[in-house]
Design brief:
Length: about 200
């Protein structure tokens, strides 16, 4: 896991910092520590929210914190590995550097995600404030969008491809996933409508 100075440099000098970090190989342990920190930050935001919104007692909130920490860690690790593999495949297909390892890409992505997750977790907590909480909710959305800019830089620097190709690397899976969801919704909607119509009693 990197120190605070690295996270700061990732925000203000992303390209140079990514190049520096991309000079060595990383292990599953390195990746998992990053994932664990990301999961804790989001779980802690949920912990605070459960106390202030749901009025949960401290013990129940702590149980929820541990539970979400475990679930988030597993999900982020699995899906992070899957998406890193997909991004790597597309980037190399578009002429990117062939020697890039999926695990290294996952580590760099998770490292980049830590400062943004910390900001998002803080904004989630601040959004609980009365009257001005909605402002922080909007800022949270803005931070999520800004993250895409940094992901583009990450892919561009790691695979040594153009900015346009770097955008395509993360945009293509999003479009394909959205199309799959759209088709599934149409299919399930049609199946449900057919079921309703078939169950309707015939007119007298």
């Amino acid at each position: 896991m990197e120190n605070i100075a690295v996270f700061q440099n990732l925000l203000f000098k992303p390209a140079d910092t990514i190049k520096q970090l991309n000079t060595k190989d990383y292990s599953y342990k390195d990746v998992f520590l990053n994932v664990l920190l990301i999961s804790f930050l989001l779980s802690f935001a949920g912990f605070v929210s459960s106390i202030f919104i749901l009025n949960s007692d401290l013990f129940a909130a702590l149980i929820g914190l541990v539970f979400t920490l475990v679930i988030y860690s597993i999900l982020f690790f699995v899906f992070g590995l899957i998406f890193s593999s997909i991004f790597s495949f597309i980037a190399k297909l578009l002429g990117g550097k062939q020697s890039v390892k999926v695990l290294n890409l996952f580590y760099l992505y998770s490292t980049l995600s830590i400062p943004f997750t910390a900001i998002i977790a803080l904004l989630i907590i601040l959004s609980l404030l009365p009257l001005i909480g909605s402002i922080f909710g909007l800022l949270n959305l803005l931070v999520s969008l800004v993250t895409l800019y940094y992901i583009t830089i990450l892919i561009r620097e790691v695979f040594e491809i153009s900015t346009l190709k770097a955008v395509a690397v993360w945009l293509l899976p999003v479009i394909i996933f959205a199309l799959i969801i759209f088709i599934l919704i149409i299919f399930l909607g049609a199946a449900l409508l057919s079921l309703i119509l078939s169950a309707k009693p015939p007119a007298a």
